[in-house]
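TA notes, week 10

Several of you asked for a full example with nothing omitted. So below is the full record: structure tokens for the whole chain, then the designed sequence directly under it. When grading your own attempts, check the secondary structure regions first.
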């Protein structure tokens, strides 16, 4: 609903010497109610932050096989632009001269708008709109500034960090990067899951080398509050399957293998390739 207007007009002390500014601010404030603050922890969020070539698409697909979980793919690092926009809003909030005539932008409301956008973007018609856990996976946020701001905007979210323990076997776009850089990138993500991180209870490490581990997947399922589901097979993004014992089998078919999970004793197949 509409915001409570009883607190208007705005505090004119921001414009003590300019009657025109006072009048414009009052009109602007009355015509543009700022809304009501939201609870940034009201929704369940799950993010996969990865180094690239680390099995993150496999993690995304495995998560999307779960009931009521909807994880979207990469978005070219668009969250960085939300952060840049907020930096501009902070500058605007700090200016009190006539050229910057503007009501104070609420940090809480700005973060609420970001959450609303991602919630709608990751829902649509997928799973009939019944997903209760939303999120995305991205390989472009491997620095403290963006990870910490993501945590600020989504303070109660859970984060899965995906990386390669062995950085010597990268291929494609990673092959031109130095080993030292790749190790630094990996070690940063590992730090977030360590005891040194004060919010490490909201993080989970899923290195490439552990994708075939049934125990690791079962721990993850427990951590994201799906204890009714048990890992059976790991569906790779290229449709090669890692079995629970770590062996590899090609040509996965959910009909003859029974599904990637057993949830309440029933097999749960993966989403069709290309499904949202």
């Amino acid at each position: 609903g509409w915001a409570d207007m009883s607190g208007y007009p705005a505090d004119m002390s921001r414009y003590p010497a300019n009657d025109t500014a006072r009048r414009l601010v009052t009109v602007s404030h009355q015509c543009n109610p700022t809304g009501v603050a939201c609870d940034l922890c009201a929704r369940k969020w799950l993010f996969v932050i990865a180094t690239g070539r680390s099995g993150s698409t496999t993690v995304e697909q495995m998560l999307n096989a779960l009931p009521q979980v909807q994880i979207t793919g990469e978005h070219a690092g668009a969250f960085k632009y939300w952060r840049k926009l907020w930096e501009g809003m902070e500058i605007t909030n700090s200016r009190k001269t006539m050229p910057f005539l503007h009501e104070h932008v609420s940090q809480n409301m700005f973060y609420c708008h970001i959450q609303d956008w991602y919630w709608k973007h990751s829902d649509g018609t997928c799973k009939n709109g019944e997903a209760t856990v939303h999120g995305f996976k991205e390989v472009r946020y491997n620095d403290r500034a963006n990870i910490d701001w993501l945590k600020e905007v989504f303070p109660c979210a859970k984060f899965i960090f995906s990386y390669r323990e062995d950085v010597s076997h990268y291929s494609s776009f990673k092959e031109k990067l130095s080993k030292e850089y790749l190790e630094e990138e990996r070690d940063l993500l590992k730090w977030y899951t360590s005891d040194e991180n004060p919010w490490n209870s909201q993080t989970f490490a899923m290195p490439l080398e552990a994708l075939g581990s049934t125990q690791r997947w079962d721990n993850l399922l427990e951590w994201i509050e799906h204890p009714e589901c048990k890992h059976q097979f790991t569906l790779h993004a290229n449709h090669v399957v890692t079995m629970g014992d770590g062996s590899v089998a090609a040509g996965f078919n959910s009909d003859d293998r029974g599904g990637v999970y057993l949830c309440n004793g029933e097999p749960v197949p993966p989403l069709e390739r290309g499904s949202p």
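The two ends are 32 Å apart (CA to CA). Use that as a sanity check on your answer.
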